[in-house]
# Entry
Amino acid sequence: MSDVPELTLLLLRIGFLVLLWFFVFGVVYSLRADLFGVKVRKLPAEAAAGAPAPIATPAAVTAAVASPAARPQGAPRTSGAATTRTVSKLMITSGPKAGLELPLGTEPMTIGRSSESGLVIRDDYTSSHHARLLLRGDSWIIQDLDSTNGTFLAGARVSGAPAPISIGDSIKVGATTFELRA
# Structure
């Protein structure tokens, strides 16, 4: 036979078997996440308090939207804050669904590859639950849900806190660009 002891061969076989099972479980976990999605996290304010975030007063919302610190770095100010009074639809301006218009209500809209999303974007650069478009007080904001490729508002990456949207700001998720319109 060979000079390798049987105990060493047995340990190598067991090691390869364990490694094989790690790969199998990794593939199954990845498939499950792609097919069924992952749990959407709460907003930071909701997670800390355990309850919905308080609705801001109109004066506080106006101050937050007008504040340069509230906008992503490098994001230009356009024609004013996107509020429920000034915005009624989401218009896809480029990407596979260019020209599609979606009416906006008052409920949050999740954007991503998952079939559970309000706006389903099927491309390789979009996460299952990529971003969330929601009302904070009377103003629309965009929140990135820790996506791999990021969410961009007016060319600047949205990271950390949700960013207020102005009318005409382009929002890019994967290969799709959209904006809020009256």
Notes: DSSP finds three helices and eleven strands in the chain. Residues 46-78 have pLDDT under 50 and may be disordered. Residues 3 and 9 are 11 Å apart (CA to CA). The first strand starts at residue 89 and ends at 94.
